[in-house]
Design goal:
It contains 9 helices and 9 strands. Helix 2 crosses helix 5 and helix 6 packs parallel to helix 8. The longest helix has 51 residues. It has a 5-stranded mixed beta sheet with strand order 5-9-8-6-7, with helices on one face. The chain has a 4-stranded antiparallel beta sheet with strand order 2-3-1-4, covered by helices on one side. The protein is an alpha+beta fold.
Length: 321
């Protein structure tokens, strides 16, 4: 192959790589430290998941906080426009105001960002409490059992973020966890940890360090893996650690919107179970009672016959003498 052909292939490869890379990342924004929002997991269909998430979140956010109010992009009032319609300074001010309004308008209540992991989207939130919103959604779904999504799996609020290194996490959590666990506050808790696209954090070490931190905040805080009052969610994605403290994590099926709408499995009837387990014992008691009654009857009959036998013996002995 000639040198010219090799050079041509290299240029084509560079253009392909550059084009492919720019197509993947052009205009996209990623999850970063300092953001708050909601992590949403899905199953192989991120675009549809994003659309469902916007619909679901907007529906319940309107209920909690009212409809979203977008900034009016009108610039000056109509009276100013009529009075100073030909004033150049006013025209310039109006244009600046419009640009500022359009910039502010970009900060919507919900904004989809690249999470940095496959099958996970991050919805950045503005001017609302993501943990309160997600809990409200799951509470309603758990009560109504009405399915409102097809591809969304779990919805995890993110109320704090920090760098995904153990020292940074412990330092950040020392202050972050105080409202729930610092004396006089205390609660039973568990830690739900997961790392994606990150290999430098070991699960056991992270959980152990967080548990030690919670214990220092108040020794009365106790671990409960069955039915804790609070769950500390720690989701690591690449170099960002997403954190939140939530209620009813077990009740709402680990915040899974598909599982929470399913009917709860019927609990076993304690009385029936106790009766069933006691049936063999009761049968044994009944059999034992019947046996005792038969033995008593036999003893009574023997007692009745004893005098007769004694008389016969005594008579025999007298006749023999």
């Amino acid at each position: 192959m000639s040198a010219a052909q090799n050079e041509s292939r290299k240029r084509s490869k560079k253009r392909y790589v550059a084009g492919h890379h720019s197509k993947r990342w052009k205009g996209s924004r990623e999850l970063e430290v300092g953001m708050e929002g909601i992590l949403i997991t899905c199953n192989m269909n991120e675009r549809k998941c994003t659309a469902e998430a916007f619909n679901l979140l907007s529906e319940y956010a309107d209920r909690l906080y009212g409809p979203e109010k977008l900034q009016d992009n009108t610039g000056s009032s109509s009276e100013e426009e009529e009075a100073e319609e030909e004033d150049v300074d006013v025209a310039l001010k109006k244009e600046v105001a419009q640009l500022q309004a359009s910039g502010t308008k970009q900060e919507r209540r919900f904004q989809a960002l690249d999470s940095g992991a496959n099958n996970v989207i991050f919805i950045r939130t503005q001017n609302l409490e993501s943990d309160k919103l997600v809990h409200h959604i799951l509470s309603d779904l758990h009560t109504t059992k009405k399915k409102k999504s097809r591809v969304i799996l779990r919805m995890l609020p993110v109320t704090g973020t920090c760098k995904a290194f153990q020292d940074d996490m412990v330092k950040y959590l020392t202050t972050f966890l105080e409202p729930w666990f610092k004396a006089p506050n205390c609660a039973t808790y568990q830690i739900a940890f997961k790392a994606r696209n990150s290999s430098h954090n070991k699960r056991d070490e992270i959980i152990k360090s967080i548990a030690g931190l919670v214990g220092k905040l108040n020794p009365k805080n106790k671990v409960d893996l069955t039915n804790p009052e609070l769950t500390i969610i720690v989701e690591v994605i690449k170099a960002v650690c997403c954190i939140s403290v939530v209620k009813d994590y077990t009740l709402y099926r680990k915040y899974n919107v598909q599982e929470v709408v399913k009917e709860d499995a019927p609990k076993p009837d304690v009385t029936t179970a106790k009766t069933d387990t006691n049936k063999p014992e009761e049968m044994e008691k009944q059999n034992a009672g019947e046996t005792n009654q038969e033995e008593k009857r036999g003893e009574e009959e023997n007692d009745k016959n004893l005098p007769q036998d004694n008389e016969e013996v005594e008579k025999g002995e007298g006749e023999g003498d």
